[in-house]
Amino acid sequence: MTTIIDGKAVAKKVNEATATVVAELKQQGVQPGIAVIIVGEDPASQIYVRNKNRKATKLGLHSVVRQLPATTTQAELLSIIDDYNSDDSIHGILVQSPLPKQINEPLITLAIDPKKDVDGFHPTNVGKLLTNFPGKYPVANTPRGIMTLLAEYGVDPAGKQAVVIGRSTIVGKPMAALLTNANATVTIAHSRTQDLKALARTADILVVATGIAHLITGADIKPGATVIDVGMDRDENGKLVGDVDFDSAQDVAGLITPVPGGVGPMTIATLMQTTVELAKWSDLGE
Ligand SMILES: Nc1nc2c(c(=O)[nH]1)N[C@@H](CN(C=O)c1ccc(C(=O)N[C@@H](CCC(=O)O)C(=O)O)cc1)CN2
Ligand SMILES: [Mg+2]
């Protein structure tokens, strides 16, 4: 029997908890605020940003979307980030990725106040994650959301073999750090990994974040493994599919996330959760 992990249901649960915390914070005179900056007209990014704004407003947050033209310069973007860094009504700042090529993305990440870095991409926060630093700091929302899914479905990473395919700053690297901190034995694989599929078959927990449609099939999965598909790809008919071939994989996996409806919904739910935490930590000094 394979369990299909219901990301929508878990996201709903996370959002309900967030709404409760927002109501408590408002009683104490604090309204958590998020600013999302988007540069250019990438259609997928437009949808994600609209969904973030809708969800934030629905949960009672103060939500600002700053739409900038694709021709925005590095200096202009830095100046806008600076404004939000010193705006007390904003607790979380997010610059939607990808950015146009004239923008130096690492320098943008560095410009965000680490205390308002709701994506958890600032090197200060990445360093804290990597060192399993004590205390409170933001962690990248997609991998954090995946940890929430694992916990909800009773998958304890401790002592397990985990393979993370993909080494991005948004998913692969923070995912590997979170699994390591949870006492899994973690291997990061990527496009230069030799015999990737044999490695995938060693995983008790397999996280796939490559952007290659159907890279992993049932034949590459250890029977009973937990398979987490972060991919959002288009197949030859333009249909949204994952990096895992769900049809063949679901016969082999113990637990598996679908695309859509698995990891995706957790990204925005966890983003809202993180924004509210940042507000709590800064305004209530927690
Ligand atoms: N600054 C950031 N940029 C980007 C991030 C990020 O975390 N921070 N992540 C992605 C895009 N993303 C949010 O920004 C995102 C992607 C997917 C989903 C989602 O809900 N997916 C659904 C399917 C949606 C569809 O039908 O197209 C699902 O998988 O069920 C939410 C947010 C890149 N940029
Ligand atoms: Mg404040």
From TrEMBL:
PROSITE patterns: THF_DHG_CYH_2 (PS00767). NADP(+) binds at G166, R167, S168. Its EC number is 1.5.1.5, 3.5.4.9. This is Bifunctional protein FolD. Pathway: One-carbon metabolism; tetrahydrofolate interconversion. Belongs to the tetrahydrofolate dehydrogenase/cyclohydrolase family. Residues 5-119 form the Tetrahydrofolate dehydrogenase/cyclohydrolase catalytic domain. It holds the Pfam family THF_DHG_CYH_C. Gene3D superfamilies: Leucine Dehydrogenase, chain A, domain 1, NAD(P)-binding Rossmann-like Domain. HAMAP family: THF_DHG_CYH (MF_01576). Catalyzes the oxidation of 5,10-methylenetetrahydrofolate to 5,10-methenyltetrahydrofolate and then the hydrolysis of 5,10-methenyltetrahydrofolate to 10-formyltetrahydrofolate. The lineage of its organism: Bacteria, Bacillati, Bacillota, Bacilli, Lactobacillales. InterPro entries: Aminoacid_DH-like_N_sf (IPR046346), NAD(P)-bd_dom_sf (IPR036291), THF_DH/CycHdrlase (IPR000672), THF_DH/CycHdrlase_cat_dom (IPR020630), THF_DH/CycHdrlase_CS (IPR020867), THF_DH/CycHdrlase_NAD-bd_dom (IPR020631). Keywords: Amino-acid biosynthesis, Histidine biosynthesis, Hydrolase, Methionine biosynthesis, Multifunctional enzyme, NADP, One-carbon metabolism, Oxidoreductase, Purine biosynthesis. The keyword NADP applies. Residues 141-281 form the Tetrahydrofolate dehydrogenase/cyclohydrolase NAD(P)-binding domain. It catalyses: (6R)-5,10-methenyltetrahydrofolate + H2O = (6R)-10-formyltetrahydrofolate + H(+); (6R)-5,10-methylene-5,6,7,8-tetrahydrofolate + NADP(+) = (6R)-5,10-methenyltetrahydrofolate + NADPH. It comes from Lactiplantibacillus daowaiensis. Homodimer.
